[in-house]
Amino acid sequence: MRPYGPAATQRGVVRECHPQRRRARVWSAGLALLVILCLVSACGSTVAQPRLAGFAAHALGADRMASRAPSDTVVAQQYLARMSLDEKLGQLFLVEFVGPQYDGGNAAMVEQQHAGGILLYNREMPNLQAASSLIQQAQAHAKLPLFVVVDEEGGWVDRLSDIYGFRPSASMIAATGSLDFARAQAAQVAHDMKTVGLNFDLAPDVDVQLVDGPDQDTRTFGTTPGQVTSFSGAWLNALQGQGVIGCLKHFPGLGAATTDAHLGLPLIARSRDQIEQVELAPYRDLIKTGQVGCIMSTDLLMPALDASMPAELSYQIITGVLRHELGYDGVVVTDALYMDGIAQRFSLPDAGVMAIQAGCDFLMGPWLPWQTQAMIDALKGALASGQLSQARIDQSVLRLLKLKLRFGLLSRMVPTSGSGPTAALSPDGARPTLEADVRRGVGAL
């Protein structure tokens, strides 16, 4: 929303005075009348001219004000200039809440560690009242408005099923052959999410299904790039048209994966030409529309793009392919960094640093304050050692702030007061057991 509306369309009313022709009985009377009428005409013109000039100046001034309305980038930079380092680093985290109560670790990650967003699952949203209360409390205590994020695809990836019941999956939507049906379903998802207080959907899935693998079951819109692009584009446009942020996933593409990305590192041995023509095609075409605000990467190995690093930790894939080759400069969110494809090789803190180095902006993974703090400390260490620059951190924070501005989550009236102190939390013990990891739902799908 811009602070200035369109220029006003007022009209100045000009009244012209026309001399009346009368026959004078005497020359002096006629001359006097002519003089009077000329004076009245001149007076009328004098009055009308400033009114027209005033209108023109008003309209021009409004147009100039509209043209000078600060862009999202300018406003985001104003916010950024007022943020402490702890506040900036906190914005980089999409933390997972544990349970439907706003207390303990849930509250600490918002209030003390300044998380930029929170991720909720079914267990945090057992009913509408509990979910709404949780979100309202979190937003009320956040220094900057939160991204409130959910996996809501439909089918078996449906985090709102306890509240709203079943909704069709991507494959069911595509099977109808109707883009209007896709739009209607996305609009309903947006309506339901907004009713709860959610503002960010990790959907649509734009993987092009090439095999009958564990990550494709009912989740994709089709087996060709064109079908996937058409249906996911219609779905995304309708979702975001209702004010809910969408997110394309799983970059650069899980459509040929035969290994569950939550339980291992899928190896996708396809040629660069095949990947260009199929997996990357929906991203390329949708990015060109300008509607894409967020893309999720995941932990897969594509040797044709990077022979050694999982996609979300790969500079060659995130910065080289997605940002440079495809021209994308929006938010990139990681998949859960505790998923096995990452966790078998890297700790959460190390993975967080590597993801930012690769070009990601939003780190999904921690669900306890000590985990978040360990990742924050690792980022600070990378800054101190020169592995990361302050400019690189600011770049990601700026992208996140711009996305919040674009969807009206963040006020365009930047506070003038300085930043408040940030209380950091220390680790409170050993890492939870594998059982706790499984209970977390092994990450966003």
How would you characterize this protein structure?
By secondary structure, the chain is an alpha/beta fold. Helix content is 46%, strand content 7%. The protein contains 17 helices and ten strands. The strands form three sheets. A five-stranded parallel sheet has the order 6-3-2-1-10. A hairpin with a 2-residue loop joins strand 4 and strand 5 (157-158). The chain is globular, with a radius of gyration of 29 Å. 42% of the residues are buried. The model is unreliable at 1-67 and 418-443 (pLDDT under 50).
Low-confidence stretches: 1-67, 418-443
What summary fits the major beta sheet? Answer: 5 strands, parallel
Find the count of extended strands (DSSP E, 2+ residues).
Answer: 10
SSE run: HHHEHEHEEEHHHEHEHHEHEHHEHHH
Tell me roughly what share of residues is in helical segments.
40-55%
What is the CA-atom radius of gyration, in angstroms? 29 Å
**Shape field:** globular
Measured by DSSP, the beta-strand proportion falls in 5-15%
Q: Strands of the biggest beta sheet: in what spatial order?
A: 6-3-2-1-10
Q: State the helix count.
A: 17
Structure class: alpha/beta
Mean pLDDT: 83
N- to C-terminal distance: 32 Å
List the helices and strands and how they pair.
Blueprint: H1 27-67, H2 72-81, H3 85-91, E1 93-96, H4 104-111, E2 117-119, H5 128-141, E3 147-150, E4 152-154, E5 157-158, H6 161-164, H7 170-175, H8 179-196, E6 200-201, H9 225-241, E7 248-251, H10 272-277, H11 281-288, E8 294-297, H12 315-325, E9 331-333, H13 340-343, H14 348-358, E10 363-364, H15 369-385, H16 390-406, H17 434-439
Parallel strand pairs: 1-2, 1-10, 2-3, 3-6, 7-8, 8-9
Antiparallel strand pairs: 4-5
Helix pairs in contact: 2-16, 8-9, 9-11, 14-15
